[in-house]
Write a structure and sequence with these properties.
This protein is mostly beta strands. The protein has three domains: 177 residues, Immunoglobulin-like (Sandwich); 147 residues, Sandwich (Immunoglobulin-like); 120 residues, Sandwich (Immunoglobulin-like), CATH 2.60.40.420. 7% of the residues lie in helices and 40% in strands. The strands form eight sheets. It has a six-stranded mixed beta sheet with strand order 14-13-16-21-18-19, with no helix packed on it. A five-stranded mixed beta sheet has the order 1-10-8-3-6, with helices on one face. Strands 2-7-12-11-9 form a five-stranded mixed beta sheet, with no helix packed on it. The chain starts with a strand and ends with a strand.
Length: 483
């Protein structure tokens, strides 16, 4: 399916409209001596967290234009990074169950792109959440996402998904939050979006190109940002609570969140509420995953929000490469001060979804695989690289299946399935289980996870893949047809 031609002036005009508010927020920021890799020096560090522009539905519909183009501000500097409507992240889209989300995607890039509403349970067919669409440079395409009336409320996001170009475009800065409202009233003073991205910039503000080994390992950027800002601060009064919707929008990086001096009260994961809040010292988020946490400072002070080191394994084949271990990164700082408030108690229960408890369809096994060929190392699923014209898994609509996802490689791979969320039943490393639907799960090196997947919401054709986006682009993706 092809898009409609647009003028360059039209694309740049839409992008400029979004950029105006971003530029206004950077006025007066001072240059910092704090550098972050590649010779790139953020102009602003530790500024108050800014929320992306919010576009909300009215009367059951949200109609927006998203213009993807280069040339946005990151960390207080003008760069050649990518964004939607002149900013990275793009605008936050807020809808409600039963709404129509109509998006005109305008491609102002020099290469094809498309749009994926990550985690939304919407049709994968036609102009819905269709990963096979190719929107050419200089054209636009009209998407229509019909959100069902029983759609869960929570935190989702959008990003490009054109095979072969996904990692470059997400690493370049394309992504934005997508929130489904009408959830429970939580005892919070503020509801914040924290969209975490990483990239590597040259001294001139150009997104660095990874080498072959970085692509095989899954690139991790030297500059880690929250809402496009470098190590921002979040203010709060002791005794109050905030809801932080943390989105891992990184191309490969696994986030291991820890807030100094605090437990994180996890209330939702991947857009699905838990049965009750769970207090955790550390919350691990694979690429593409989300966590909603309640943060409740009790004393004044400065409390860093860190992503702790994560070992993602190594290449381990043919003597190529070593281990991939993320460094400890400061994401943001909680600044607690001012008059103390009386703490509100946590809700004793949350509106968790009750997933199907039985399997009435097939039991399948799929495998992340790695091999050596004449062209070097290859990545795939079940020993085959992605082919959009091939159907890899044929599923009968209306059934609930049990899948075992096996990882035959020495690296961790996050498994992601579009459209149809799953419940994790067991893992080879005995990771804690939420019992609620999710759409991304880490599969340990040389390990496995077992999933229950209801294919009951929509028929259609889509994909499942490794959400280390370099691996997806290299072929670690497969097709699924539900009919």
């Amino acid at each position: 399916m092809s898009g409609r031609p647009i003028s360059r002036r039209r694309a740049m005009g839409v992008a400029a409209a979004g950029a105006a508010s971003v530029a206004g927020g950077t006025a007066g920021w001072l240059w910092s001596a704090n550098s972050a890799g590649g010779g790139f020096r953020p102009a602003a560090t530790a500024a108050p967290l800014r929320e992306p522009r919010v576009l909300s539905s009215r009367g059951g519909r949200l109609q927006v234009e998203l213009a993807a183009a280069a040339g946005v501000a990151l960390a207080g500097r003008d760069t050649e990074a990518l964004g939607y409507n002149g900013s990275s992240p793009g605008p936050t889209l807020r809808v409600r169950p039963g709404d129509d989300l109509a998006v005109r995607l305008i491609n102002g890039l020099a290469e094809p792109t498309n749009l994926h509403t990550h985690g939304l349970r919407v049709s994968p067919q036609g102009n819905g959440d269709n990963p096979f669409l190719r929107i050419e440079p200089g054209t636009s395409f009209d998407y229509l996402f019909r959100i069902p009336r029983d759609h869960p409320t929570g935190t989702f996001w959008y990003h490009p998904h054109r095979h072969g170009l996904v990692a470059d475009q997400v690493f370049g800065g394309l992504g934005g939050a997508l929130l489904v409202d009408d959830g429970p009233d939580l005892p919070v003073e503020q509801d914040r979006v924290l969209l975490v991205t990483d990239t590597t910039m040259t001294v001139d503000g150009v997104v660095a190109r990874p080498d072959r080994m970085e692509r095989m390992q899954g690139r991790e950027g030297e500059l880690v940002l929250v809402n496009g800002q470098h190590q921002p601060t979040l203010g709060a009064a002791p005794g109050t609570a905030q809801r932080w919707r943390v989105i891992n929008g990184c191309a490969s990086r696994v986030l291991a969140l820890r807030l100094a001096g605090h437990e994180l009260d996890l209330v939702a994961r991947d857009g699905a509420f838990l049965p009750a809040p769970e207090s955790q010292q550390r919350v691990v988020l694979p690429p593409g995953s989300r966590a909603d946490v309640l943060v409740r400072p009790t004393t004044p002070g400065r409390f860093p929000l860190l992503s702790e080191p994560v070992d993602r394994g190594g290449m381990g084949m043919g003597g190529m490469g070593g281990g991939v271990r993320s460094e400890r990164v400061l994401l943001a700082t909680l600044m607690a001060g001012g008059p103390e408030a009386k703490p509100a108690p946590l809700p004793p229960a949350l509106p968790a979804e009750q997933p199907r408890a039985t399997t009435d369809g097939k039991r399948r096994e799929v495998a992340f695989t790695m091999g050596m060929g004449t062209a070097g190392m290859s990545l795939g699923i079940d020993g085959r690289a992605f082919d959009p014209d091939r159907t890899d898994q044929l599923v009968r609509f209306g059934t609930v299946e049990e899948w075992t996802v096996v990882n035959t490689t020495p690296m961790t791979h996050p498994f992601h399935l579009h459209v149809w969320p799953f419940v994790v039943l067991a893992t080879s490393d005995n990771a804690p289980l939420s019992g609620t639907p999710q759409d991304v799960v880490l599969v340990p090196p040389q390990g496995w996870v077992r999933l229950r997947i209801p294919f009951t919401a929509y028929p259609g054709r889509s994909v499942f893949h490794c959400h280390i986006l370099d691996h997806e682009d290299a072929g670690m993706m497969a097709t699924i047809q539900v009919r």
